[in-house]
Write a structure and sequence with these properties.
This protein is an alpha/beta fold. Strand 8, helix 8 and strand 9 form a beta-alpha-beta unit. Helix 1 crosses helix 3. About 45% of the residues are buried. The site of pyridoxal-5'-phosphate has 12 residues, from helix 9.
């Protein structure tokens, strides 16, 4: 007989707590902050690492009916999730799914089958969609414009060329015109206003359709940026503080891992791979059971002197030496004696907000969330 699978909750396993009530609350805050605009949800990269299967039903129940993913396969999976949810509430079924990466070559039929709206990013893609719709029937799609980000999207010249004749819009339904801000998290950046103006100039040359420009940061740039639809991602998942204090964003993800062992070091003792940290006085350290294979960036252990600190009760504990695949060391010298083997350490959550941790390690909360590993015990709270 085969050896049975292990139970879920062995004590040496890191725990990722995901608060779905907080997710719903963040959606509601962002919908209110969006004013008259529809608030969509960006659920690409498996809902920023927190799980599309668990988060999408909650977003639907909170009233969300527009979703964005990056890739076609994500859209197909999302359509499956939404159609499953629609068995209990038929109104979910009409939800629109936009695929940001454009129209994948030779896959036109998949967008139709799974009712996905491609965000068309080139004249060639528009022509392909139009040709497909002429055979397969009229289907909706969005246009995605490049207003200065220089990533994906139709350029001003493309729009000018299209606007000479409206023939290119026949046979399919243009149901959204979108673009993306490069500097929305820096409210004073001149790029924001420049992109808004470019967006107005370009959309004026196109047939009328709902318009969308704002990601999470864009929602808080003011009413002018909210237009007809907003597209927050990170703000839903608790990865960005909202400037509006009246509507404080709620923490969604909390990551905790156990201390596996503590040790005492004398001056001159080194820690970990490369012996990159050497104690210059007596220290007590804890070895935490979570490493770079779980998504804690190895670069967090590169700073000398150490600079990434975790909250530990009312104290802080620095990460010492290099991050290993399955563990890392923290400084417990000043910590309460009661913190030792089997104590749980919060990597991020309440005492160490995820943005603060990311900033100390010179990255962003988006990266920490989307790199979250597969070894956690994931605990969803509703
Ligand atoms: C990822 C993404 C978003 C969401 O941005 P946040 O900063 O997470 O709110 C919105 N629009 C586009 C085009 C994106 O790629």
């Amino acid at each position: 007989m085969a050896t049975p699978l292990p139970p879920d909750g062995f004590a040496d396993r890191p725990r990722l707590h995901i608060d779905l009530t907080a997710l719903a609350a963040n959606y509601t805050i962002l919908q209110k902050a969006s004013g008259k605009a529809q608030c969509a949800a960006v659920v690409k990269a498996d809902a920023y690492g927190l799980g599309m299967d668990e988060t999408v039903p909650v977003l639907l129940a909170a009233g969300c009916r527009h979703f964005f993913v990056a890739q076609l396969a994500e859209g197909v999976r999302l359509r499956h999730i939404i159609s499953t949810c629609a068995e209990s509430d038929k109104s979910f079924d009409a939800s629109a799914i936009y695929v940001l990466s454009g129209l994948a070559a030779n896959a036109e039929n998949d967008y139709v089958t799974y009712r996905l709206h491609p965000c068309l990013i080139s004249l060639a893609q528009i022509k392909n969609w139009q040709a497909h719709c002429r055979k397969a029937g009229n289907h909706p799609a969005a246009l995605f414009l490049d207003t200065g980000f220089n990533r994906l999207g139709l350029s001003f010249d493309d729009i000018a060329e299209m606007s000479e004749t409206n023939e290119i819009f026949e046979g399919w339904t243009l149901d959204l015109i979108a673009s993306h801000l490069a500097c929305a998290d820096t409210p004073d950046h001149p790029m924001n206003r420049a992109q808004l103006e470019a967006f107005h100039t370009m959309t004026a040359l196109l047939p009328p359709a709902p318009r969308s420009l704002a990601n999470t940061g864009g929602i808080f740039l003011g009413d002018a940026y909210r237009l007809d639809m907003t597209r927050p991602g990170i703000g839903l998942y608790g990865g960005m503080a909202f400037p509006d204090d009246a509507a404080a964003r709620q923490t969604v993800a909390r990551l905790r891992a156990p201390i596996l062992q503590t040790r005492r070091l004398s001056a001159g003792d080194a820690i970990g791979y490369g012996a990159s940290f050497t104690a210059d006085h007596e220290m007590r350290i804890g070895i935490v059971g979570l490493g770079y294979s779980d998504g804690l960036p190895r670069s967090f252990g590169q700073f000398n002197p150490p600079r990434v600190r975790l909250g530990l009760g009312d104290r802080e504990a620095a990460i010492l030496g290099r991050i290993s695949m399955d563990s890392f060391a923290i400084d417990l010298t000043d910590a309460d004696d009661s913190i030792g083997a089997d104590s749980m350490v919060e990597i991020f959550g309440d005492t160490t907000p995820i943005d603060g941790l990311a900033e100390q390690g010179q990255t962003i909360s988006y990266e920490l969330l989307t790199q979250l590993g597969s070894r956690y015990k994931r605990i969803y709270k509703t």
